[in-house]
Amino acid sequence: MNNFSNKIRKLLQDRASAQAKLNLIPYDGSPEIKENAKGKYLYVRKRVNGRLTSTYVGPYSEELHNLLLKNKTEAQQLRKLLRKLDRELLASGYTHSDLPKNVARNLDFARIHLKSNIYDQAVLEGITTTFPQT
Q1: DSSP conformation class of 26
Q2: What is the mean pLDDT of the chain?
Q3: Share of the chain residues as helix, strand and coil, in percent rounded to the nearest 5
Q4: Rounded CA gap, 134 and 132, in Å?
Q5: Is the pLDDT of residue 110 over 90?
Q6: Residues 122, 129: contact at Cβ < 8 Å?
Q7: How many CB atoms are located within 10 Å of the residue 78 CB?
Q8: Domain segments of the chain: what residues?
Q9: What's residue 87's pLDDT?
C-alpha cells in the first residue's frame, strides 16, 4: 500500500511540476510573422476557447523568432508529458474527485451564516451596527 501511494504521489508531483513549467512559458502558440510598410513584426497565434487569437510579441528578429519556436516545442512536449502522466494516474486507479458532499454542505452553511455571525459578535461586543452594515 505504501509503495502504491508513493507512486501516485510521485506522479502527482511530476504532473504539478510539468503544469507549473507550462504556465511559466510566456508566449505559448505558433509564431507568426506579419509584414507592413514599416517592417516585420512577430505575433503568437493560438486557439483560446475555440477562437484563434494573435498576440503581439515585438519587432522581428531572428533571435526572438527562434525563442518563440523553442517555446512552442517545449509547450508541446510538456502537454504530451501531462497527457502521459494523466494516463498513468488513471491506470493506477487514481481519480480526482471534488469535495465530499458533507464538506461542501458545511462550506455552503458557513457562507450563508457568515454575515449573521459577524453581526451577532458585533452586538455582543457592544458595537453599534445594523445588519445591513455588516
Answers
A1: S
A2: 88
A3: 55, 20, 25
A4: 5
A5: no
A6: yes
A7: 20
A8: 2-96, 99-134
A9: 92
Beta-sheet pairing, 51-59 with 30-36: unpaired
Residue of 61, 74, 59 lying closest to 27 (CA atoms): 74
Cα–Cα separations (whole angstroms), residue 89 to 11, 17, 21, 111: 7, 15, 19, 34
- Residue 116 banded pLDDT, cuts 50, 70, 90: confident
pLDDT at residue 132, as a whole number? 79
Burial of 130 (0-12, 13-18, 19+ CB in 10 A): exposed
- For 10, the grid coordinates are 510521485
Count of positions (residues) in the chain: 134
